[in-house]
Amino acid sequence: MFLIRSGAIEGYEHLVSQYGQNPAALLQQFGFSSAQLRDPNTYVSYNRLADLLDATALACRDTLFSLNLSATQGPLALGEIGLSIRQQPTITDALAYSRQHISLHAYGVHVQQVTRADSLELHLSFDFSNTSGLAQLMQLSAGQAFNLLSQMGGSTASVKLHLPQAAPSEIRTTPQRYAGHILYHSEFAGISFPLSWLPRKPQFDEALLRAHFQQRIQLLETIYPGNLQAQVRHIIGNLLPSGECNIERVAAALNLHPRVLQKALQAEKTTFRELLQKARLEIAKRNLQYGQLSITDLALNLGYADVAIFSRNFKRWTGQSPRDWKARHQKAPMTPITKSRL
Q1: Could you tell me the pTM of the whole model?
Q2: Sheet containing 109-116: order of strands
Q3: Could you give the 3-state DSSP secondary structure of residue 180?
């Protein structure tokens, strides 16, 4: 099963409405709902999202619909991985981090690095296809990669956006953000930028960071109004696969000092450690029951360096090994699988 965070199409409903179309009807046609889009960390079918984008481009009569969508997007489009990538020591490290943790955002997409003279190309490939050859999905993914690299490099001047498709007949549909940067009829979908950028420290936009925190806090208050424990467990679920889940990171996500968060949890008769354990157990059970991850990959996604440690903890929590528990409880995969609602 190929899955992607619903945050990947942040701004979809607003943009479709601007074209004079009904976003709810298009979403429903492919089994999605507006409610799913309110939580950007809900995982949905990657294949169906690709078909949704193709159908939307036809309905809106814009062959560059998905590129226009990526041009409007903010920090929630890539979620935690987008913020963590920007915080790496160099752009080389940022690229390595993105390859290692891309499953935080999507399952079924890969990024290959190809060196050409004085530039580095990032080629996007997918484990599935559709009748259009994923034309719209390639636009969206390449546009998001362009946004991220240009922000880290501090300039769009030397970044190129590559698309295998032909140039649209009406150039007026090209988003201003990418004007002069798109190479059509390219051999690959992705981006290219100067090799000289690799040793650079990624630029980090503090205003962008504040905007991300504000959006996230508003989102959590909408989903879990007044429920601090649920909000903390939500963030834990997002951070665990990165291996960087600690009270400092969770407190920062809530725009709180760690000691303030500790005291707030103590007042509710719980601790960060207890919520971490509960989050791990709930995610483990859900994946063992409905998911397709191996037990080793599940352990890594829960922040364990050793599958044996995960297995011991799971047996202590449930009285059964992960393998035995899965054999007794496994069911058909759900659609969608929501990773973060605990």
Answers
A1: 0.71
A2: 109-116, 119-126, 189-194, 160-162, 182-183
A3: coil
